[in-house]
Write a structure and sequence with these properties.
Keywords: Kinase, Transferase. The protein has about 350 residues and is an alpha+beta fold. It has helices at about 40-50, 100-110, 145-150, 155-170, 235-255, 280-285, 300-310, 320-340; strands at about 55, 65, 70-75, 85-90, 125, 135-140, 145, 175, 185, 195, 200-205, 210, 235, 255-260, 265-270. Strand 14 and strand 15 form a beta hairpin. Helix 4 runs antiparallel to helix 8 (about 320-340).
Length: about 350
Amino acid sequence: MTTGHSINPIGSILNLVSCKIPFLLKMLPVSLRPIGDFLDIERARDKYEISSYISKLSNHSIAHGSRGDVFAAHLWDNNRRAYQNVVVKVFRGTYTETLKVQKRLLREIAVWAYLNHPNIATFYGITFKFGPMPGIVSPLIKNDLMDYTENRLNDRLRLIHEIASGLKYLHAKYVIHGDLKPANVRVSACGVAQILDFGMGRIDNTRGFTTSFDPNPRYMAPETFPCEDDSSIRLTFRSDVFSFAMLMLQVLHGRDLRLDQQGTKLWDYSQPFNHIALDWSLWDRVRKGERPFQNRYRGITQNQWRLMEGCWHRMPHERPSAQEIELCIGLELQGYHGQNR
């Protein structure tokens, strides 16, 4: 392996990484932390590129979605003697979609680099080793939230509290996540919940903002549903709260794959609105005020259900804040531990 790399504040502390979350942004001057969309590809390269510390493990992705691929890689320290396992998220797009993809990517970099909290996955930097567009480098967090909690009933409420803590932090920083769901939360080797995927995230301007993406009405607040003549959606702190309630519902119930009522296919009964198929009727029924049925979910206390009801209230201004949610779940968690001593 080659040596002689210039000193890099990010690479120089990687050999100290353990189960604790490395707060790499402390090494960056405040002036280098972008706020909003005031960032372009060249500025992103100048401020955040760590390609010289990245080793590709394969040309094949370990995961993929509708908008991009995730690759495994190694992030080396300055001496190339120790490395950390990381993932690199690379957006896809056709030539005609390049500007749209670039805007989304730069928004994610701008928002994620601004954050520093134990329940937020750490942004390490960017690399150009996986294509012409920058790939976002973050820790490899192996545990899927629903997989991790499947047989860990006693950890579910604690992890939900940690997610609420991360959401409270985001909102205190005026950041709207915009796509909160179990798939966008991972659990570290130390059992700590960490929110990731800030492609929808943005610094709030107090009026909300509009954007376009592939929506899933099981987690979306009805006021954010796109209209027939407009595919954009309007996200706010209160729409994040609605999404959090749906995530909370699914985690508390726990993974529950069974044959559907017709006995023809597996159906995940933990998902929000498990009584409705994912089709046009779900959009309409949620918009009209329909919510999950309590008798179709298990392992949820009355206090927890009342909190979720408040979070998915039809009127956004009636929903609690992330700070209030974190406090309520913290009190519930204290009572839970008191009963299990």
